[in-house]
């Protein structure tokens, strides 16, 4: 049985993100109401209670990320006000000492009566579009974080003063759409410009502005049906590779192209694209394992690309390959098996081995847009949340065939005919 709990009236408006801390005992939530709430789990009865809450931004908060606990209790928040803010939890005693030394005063104080307060330590303001995602790097790379915004730029920041968290250096800034795809050098990547405003709405810019931008950026390319051209049709997402061996590698998606680029950052050279994951038949890497080959197709019945709204890189846990999950506006949850260059025999034209990717699972159970995909700590179970109001679980069988492992509705009643959540059998292998 799926164990569930319910937090009634968590926010005054729609929730935009939830994020567990490293230990899974605290939960941060954000909303269109511009507020952040921190929840604490009571392990004796499994209930959650508000520990802190504050108004964090001047527009909707889009995404949250906890830093590794070795750096302290630190939270990053991204917002539609084009900023990313760094927050630190500080006790009253430590806070009083900081103020007496002339440091920045505490802001956004919780009214919950807790013995701590969250202090705004830094504000990152380089984005020229609404901030859509933020994620701290794996702790072995130091206190770094990645952000992506609707200007299609991926930015990497590094904290230069971990004691105060006040100084963050922009170490990398790259236009994801401009990076060439090493996996498909002959293919053309279509990326439409999506104009934004300082406080952009979810509906994006006006049709006339978008049409003008499209004409200027891609005058010779006809728009394919289903792609959309508003900011609201796009998707911006990032996820770090959890394994240290491969260096600083990030999977990123932006705009309406429907592809995920795997990008490697190195101090000695410019960022490079290791692989582009494109599920459409005209993309470079196509097949379901055991299915059609990876030769580009001109099939007129080929599905049109839809924006990828979420990407999640699974912990490796000893596997010789990587698993990357994506969720899109087409309602599909896809799982990719990605092999690094040295672990496969696919050779580039210049004689160098390259990374390869294969779709090993493709589910459309949500039917509506997928808002989030997330792995468990071992990378063996995938969860997805969609606009159908359900959270679904996916798990591999003994034969590495991915199957539905259950689902639950957000507001289902106990006597609902599918309250179970339609627990599909996940013990049968093909």
Automatic annotation (TrEMBL):
Chain intervals for the UniProt region annotation (Disordered): 407-430
Residues spanning the membrane: none
Cellular component aspect of the GO annotation: nuclear pore outer ring; Seh1-associated complex
Keywords: mRNA transport, Nuclear pore complex, Nucleus, Protein transport, Repeat, Translocation, Transport, WD repeat
Record localization: Nucleus, Nuclear pore complex
InterPro entries hit by this protein: Sec13/Seh1_fam, WD40/YVTN_repeat-like_dom_sf, WD40_PAC1, WD40_repeat_dom_sf, WD40_rpt
A family per Pfam: WD40
UniProt-listed GO biological process terms: cellular response to amino acid starvation; mRNA transport; positive regulation of TORC1 signaling; protein transport
Top-rank taxon, per record: Eukaryota
Molecular-function GO term, any one: structural molecule activity
SUPFAM superfamilies hit by this protein: WD40 repeat-like (SSF50978)
Acidic residues composition-biased segments: 412-423
Principal cellular location given in the protein's record: nucleus
Family from the record: Belongs to the WD repeat SEC13 family.
PANTHER family xref list: NUCLEAR PORE COMPLEX PROTEIN SEC13 / SEH1 FAMILY MEMBER (PTHR11024), NUCLEOPORIN SEH1 (PTHR11024:SF3)
Protein name according to UniProt: Cytosolic iron-sulfur protein assembly protein 1
Protein source organism: Paxillus rubicundulus Ve08.2h10
């Amino acid at each position: 049985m799926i164990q569930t709990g319910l937090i009634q009236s968590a926010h005054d408006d729609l929730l935009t993100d939830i994020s567990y801390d490293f230990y899974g005992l605290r939960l941060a939530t954000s909303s269109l109401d511009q507020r952040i709430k921190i929840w604490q789990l009571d392990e004796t009865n499994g209930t959650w209670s508000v520990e802190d809450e504050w108004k964090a931004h001047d527009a909707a908060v889009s995404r949250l990320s906890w830093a590794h606990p070795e750096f302290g209790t630190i939270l990053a928040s991204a917002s539609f006000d084009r900023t990313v803010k760094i927050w630190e939890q500080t006790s009253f005693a430590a806070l009083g000492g900081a103020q007496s030394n002339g440091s920045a005063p505490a802001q956004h104080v919780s009214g919950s009566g807790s013995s701590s307060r969250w202090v705004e330590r830094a504000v990152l303001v380089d984005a020229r579009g609404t901030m859509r995602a933020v994620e701290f790097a794996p702790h072995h790379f130091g206190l770094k974080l990645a952000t992506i915004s609707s200007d299609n730029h991926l930015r990497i920041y590094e904290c230069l003063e971990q004691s105060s968290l006040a100084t963050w250096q922009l170490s990398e800034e790259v236009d994801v759409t401009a990076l060439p795809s090493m996996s498909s050098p002959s293919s053309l990547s279509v990326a439409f410009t999506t104009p934004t405003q300082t406080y952009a709405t979810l509906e994006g810019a006006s049709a006339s502005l978008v049409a003008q931008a499209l004409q200027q950026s891609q005058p010779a390319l006809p728009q394919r049906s289903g792609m959309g051209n508003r900011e609201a049709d796009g998707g911006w997402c990032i996820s770090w590779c959890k394994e240290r061996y491969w260096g600083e590698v990030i999977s990123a998606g932006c705009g309406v192209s429907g592809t995920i680029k795997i990008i490697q950052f190195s101090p000695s050279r410019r960022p490079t694209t290791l692989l582009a994951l494109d599920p459409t038949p005209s993309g470079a890497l196509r097949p379901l394992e055991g299915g059609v080959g990876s030769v580009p197709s001109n099939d007129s019945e080929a599905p049109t690309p839809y924006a990828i709204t979420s990407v999640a890189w699974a912990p490796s846990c000893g596997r010789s390959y990587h698993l990357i999950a994506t969720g899109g506006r087409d309602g599909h949850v896809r799982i990719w098996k990605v092999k690094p260059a040295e672990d496969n025999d696919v050779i580039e034209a210049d004689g160098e081995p390259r990374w390869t990717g294969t779709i090993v699972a493709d589910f459309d159970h949500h039917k509506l847009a997928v808002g989030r995909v997330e792995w468990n700590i071992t990378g063996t179970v995938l969860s997805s949340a969609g606009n159908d109001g359900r959270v679904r679980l996916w798990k591999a069988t003994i034969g590495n065939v991915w199957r539905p492992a259950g689902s639950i509705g957000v507001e289902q009643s106990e006597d609902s005919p599918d309250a179970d959540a339609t627990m599909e059998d996940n013990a049968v292998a093909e």
